[in-house]
Amino acid sequence: MIDGKKTMLSGMQATGMITLGNYLGALKNWVNLSDEEGINCFYGIMDLHSITVRQNPTEFRQNARRLLQLYIAAGLDPEKNCIFFQSHVPAHAELAWILNCYTYMGEMNRMTQFKDKAAKHADNINTGLFTYPVLMAADILLYQADLVPVGKDQMQHLEITRDIANRFNGVYGDVFTVPEGYVGKQGARIMSLADPMKKMSKSDENQNASIYLLDDKDTIMRKFKKAVTDSDGFIAYSDEKPGIRNLIDIYCACTSKTVEEALADFNGMNYGQLKECVGEAVVNELAPLQARYDELAKNKDYIDRIMKENAQKASYYANKTLRKVKKKVGFTEMPR
Fold this sequence. Notes:
Layout: E1 6-13, H1 20-34, E2 39-46, H2 47-50, H3 57-74, E3 82-85, H4 91-100, H5 105-109, H6 112-120, H7 127-142, E4 147-149, H8 155-172, E5 180-182, H9 217-225, H10 242-255, H11 259-265, H12 271-297, H13 300-329
Parallel strand pairs: 1-2, 2-3, 4-5
Helix pairs in contact: 3-12, 4-7, 4-13, 7-8, 9-12, 10-12
């Protein structure tokens, strides 16, 4: 709670190019939520989390800055929302170390995402990957977040955050707000164009599997032409036709139409025509975002100012919490 309003925190890792799935499933909903009165919204470019996997430094810096520009291009107002780089607020790393000392090995061993990521990066199973959920807890607790948007794959991290907060509060009193999961309007669950049984991912090695937010029209249309469907030849919205269902979900998310309205639009069409319609809907959805992104990319001074001002704002609130934590723990205060 900040200034009598509930606080919400969310963010994305600063790796790769975010996809249509990231946009329709999360970012577009953040924009809608930020327009609601009565909620303070903090949105992070989570670059500390990103280095559990080795990054090319030049590309990493470019990706992080591009992510900030995409946040703004999508409609997040940086004057109204606090959009900040995680690494620009040292309190994240400092609180994470303190919370590590209040988190048990058994709890970390039960984290399913660690097991999944360790399997994908067997040559780099580092300690940061293991303690990732503690840094995530620090992200949330620093801002006394009441609400955290979570998908099914993040519920375990929210629960460990709540456990850590309750444990710390149990020892030292009312220090942290214990966050709740935020379940707003359900974002579209967008699946891979190459394999509709798995989510669209920015880390997919198959470039045709994902639509990226800065893909041009020709690239978008080409990828939809290659999208996996089936051999039935008829358009229906059902679990038995995951490829067709995914295309209809994308169309509905981009046009705000219901499934019934979409099916009426597609009546009498073949798969090729369906793919063309969905591709056009995506092109139209992304066109304003891409135009705004191009403007922002040319305005270095504006982006630099936003980075600096929002880092200062985030640090103000984060350091308030960190000072309280350090006093409770018993650290010696620096003489003034």
